[in-house]
Structures
1.
Amino acid sequence: MNGPSEFHVIGSLKDWDITDRLAEITTPTLLVSGRHDEATPLIVGQIHERTPGAQWVLFEESSHMRHVEEPDGFLAAVEAFLATIDPSQLSARRSRAGLREVSAGAGTRTLTPPTGTPDFK
């Protein structure tokens, strides 16, 4: 679909572009990128501008693996983002997706897919 590499796109995805559909996203969205990433700040900035309510964190010392290159900052950004999400909205989204929460003991939670849905682990 892509081609011989992500840098030489000649396959069926060559002209695939859903940029104009980013405005349809209604889910809380966190964009994370690195200053030295192949997805440059210019590219991620355009995604940010077109995604309603999206939050964007640019990691100045990172490339594509900010979770490895700046782990403390990455975890802080994700935690801060998750703190902004209303838990009742998440429950409603889970319900619409057919997911149910199952206790896995000692304060952990697991979301299980509806019966009959393949497990992609």
2.
Amino acid sequence: MNKGAPFLFRRPLAPLLRPFGGLAFPGPLASARQKKQGDNRWLRKKTEGRYNLPISSLSANAREVTMRRIVIVLITLISIAILLAIFLPPFLFQPDGINLLKNGGFEMGKAFDPDPDETFVTGPNVRILCDRSTSIDDWVATGPGPSGIHEPCSGGRPRDVLEYVANDNCCCQPSDVPPCPNSSGIKAQEGFRFVNLSGGPGRPAGRYGSVSQDVQTEVGQTYELSFFIGSSSVNTIAGDQNGGVLVEIGGVVIQPPLSSPGDNLFHATPPQAVSNWSDPNDPRFPRARFTARSTGTATLKFTGDVSQGRGTLYIGLDNVSLQKVCFFAIVLGC
């Protein structure tokens, strides 16, 4: 007997602390380790008795259930990632709000300045432009003009390639709020001025005009182009409402997102009034994104056209915008 130990812990009482019936005695005299081992053996025996299964089988089932749960979680996460990849980019990648084009609304230019080649006609309020004209600031007007109708401009350049419409303050009544219409009831989308790409009346679609401007691009950079197309219910050839605009940059055609196969034109929405401009909320609104193929100067060009070739008397162009598209651009910029 260990005489140095207290009475309760001398050897004669040691059997009280040994396993009792396969379980550690849970009384206050049991050590923590013995109690834990006893509890585990008790739980094992209880589990096997209740489910009539060895504990090893339950562990395998638990692992299987756990693996199933992991697979379900992984499938869910992958599905969410796919949905985010499809629907989030338009929100995460946004235009930075800086228009890379100058004079995108055509408000600046020599509409009324005297010129022996280019005359201003009141009523429709148009300056009739020659090929390679720079009367619209920062833009160059080009086109074949009507065949054999007008004398050429100086240098043999075609005349009347398109019309620079400038309603300015000439057409507003005291009660009117700009933009104000011309004598044909046509007005700018915003401000006073815009471009009529079809030029004067009486020509086929293949002889419509173009406006172009050089811009700086960066290879691999995504850009968003948007603009407004004007149409009129009183200035169309019978049966034709297919007037549109062909857009190119660096000689490459920019494809409209919702175009039909073989149709490369951005179309005006159907005329519903005397003067109508594209609706920004319409899915057909002229807006498209593209990625630059090179770094340097590229020419952005807009040409009037119709998909079925019958011609129209008016294809308006106004408020042209070209912006960089970047990740969270509104907050972070490009």
3.
Amino acid sequence: MKKYLILLFALVCALAMVGCDNDESAAYVGVENDYFRAEPEDMFVFTNDSIYGGVRITGYLGDKTHLRVPYTINGRPVTSISNTAFGVLVRQVVVPETVIRFDWGGMDFGAQVEEAGISELFIPEGVTHIEDRSFRNLSILEKVSLPSTLIAIGDQAFINNTNLRTVSMNEGLRYIGMNAFDGCSLLSEVMLPSTLVRVGPSAFRNTALTDVTIPGSLESISTSSFHGIAALRNLYIEYGVRLINTNAFADASLEVIIIPDSVHTIGRGAFARNSNVTHIQIGDGVREIGNFAFLDSRALVSLSIGNNVEIIGSHAFYNINFLTSIILPNSVRDVGAWAFANGVSLILIDLGDGIDTIGNHAFEKAHMLEYVSIPYSLVNLGNFAFSGSRSLPACQQAEIRKLNINALF
């Protein structure tokens, strides 16, 4: 026996049971019948709705637990309802189809869902926005289906729904708010629509997603938006994405990372601590690889760096235990401190022909290093940049010492 929550029109903030005959605990939802009549207009506090041109309900003066909102007040359509309109005693609200937006967070909605044992949520056609914190902190809800009319999911809308497993998202959805699904630790199935233009910071942090496709419509991947997803193994980033922000995919289990040519910047720690990754391919559009971007890519055996990368930040590839060679394109000007340190299996390093600066400890502990190219462009070589490279030929060690006597110690 499953319990469902059905929202009707723009929103019916009520509890309902589908397929559960003779269950006295199921709440009844009426829309076009006379189960209960609309409350008189003078029972509502309201203001002008400057966004949608009708009336916005901001308060309720009655004492009913089940009520119906009228279609009009003072001859004008009711188009929105504020999140403070109804107190916690209101258990069921039927709103007219004139309502475009309903800020659900003001009702003690989570408690109602928990009490009724709701496991599946269906939001009907006509709803355009799910407001901030609408369905937060629910422990029973398992599945959410969104309508084709939905445009935006608010901040923390489904945060900490610890039993939520599946969300069916619609084409037409454009915005997913900050922390929208953060902490939904069992959420494993989400298909992001091609219409998305923004996914907020930490939107899917600490979920259980295994496969993610980032649509090209999403130009910027926000900070920590997919951070801490230990189950995440497969990632496809479509052409069109331009910026991957701080910690976007950190602490996941990605095995292959391919950055499309449309991306220009990989932010700080964007893919840090993906210890299972074996192949990284960075597109030709990337100009900067941020600090700690690929930190602790311990299983990495293949690295391809695009032909226009200019800056590789500090600790960007720190702890690459199995990589045997690094070939930098001629575009690289600056390699930061500790950028490739602890590359204990490195045998060959080709620095390209354009590098100017190598930071302190940049290639430290490359114990097996047998060859490194030293271009004429190199001017600034940091202390201990090649410290521990005991296998380098004496002639190359002498060449390095000419640039910085402390580079090898």
